[in-house]
Amino acid sequence: MLILLSVLSFFLANEDPTKSPKKTSLKVDVHNVRTSQGAVYVALFRADNSFPDGKPMDGRRLDAIEKRVEATFSVEPGDYAIAVFHDENGNGKLDKRIFGIPKEPYGFSNNFRPTMSAPKFKDCKFTVGEGGKTISIKLD
Q: CA-CA distance, 132 to 92, in Å (whole number)?
């Protein structure tokens, strides 16, 4: 039994770190929250998700109690994109005008502002390294 425990502890101590990727912190500061009504939704996407309308890999719902809100995610180093909107009326969705133009404030990573269509992942892509990252998004 002692030999089995010794062998097991050797394998656990020498486990290949590439098999379980290290997580790091991604902090998202959302600025220009105009009103304290409703909630701010922050959606995190990887390249394999359908950005920005598909299902995000992770997301946060934050009460809009200040002009600035902050969301923190635990992620593996890699490429990501963020979509944010302020659900001012609290109905749980981004209200839109004719032709799909948002009525409520929204924003994307890199503060990318689309003109004629929804942005592509590459427009909003940023890289999180092993040391983590903080990004800032302004709602418009």
A: 30
DSSP-derived secondary structure letter, 51: T
Unique residue bearing structure tokens 């030999």: 3
CB 71 within 8 A of CB 42: yes
Q: Which residues contact 26 (CB under 8 A, 6 or more apart)?
A: 44, 72, 73, 74, 75, 80, 128, 132, 133, 134, 135
pLDDT at 10: 41
What ranges make up the beta strands (E) of the chain?
24-31, 39-45, 58-63, 69-75, 78-87, 106-108, 126-128, 133-138
Cβ neighbours of residue 42 closer than 8 Å, sequence gap 6 or more: 28, 30, 59, 60, 62, 71, 82, 83, 84
Per-residue pLDDT tens for 72-98?
A: 999 999 999 999 999 999 999 999 998
Q: With CA atoms as reference, report the closest residue to 52 among 110, 6, 1, 13.
A: 110
Residue 85's DSSP bridge partners are 41, 106
**Assigned token pair, 33:** 């929250």
Residue stretches of the chain with pLDDT short of 50: 1-13
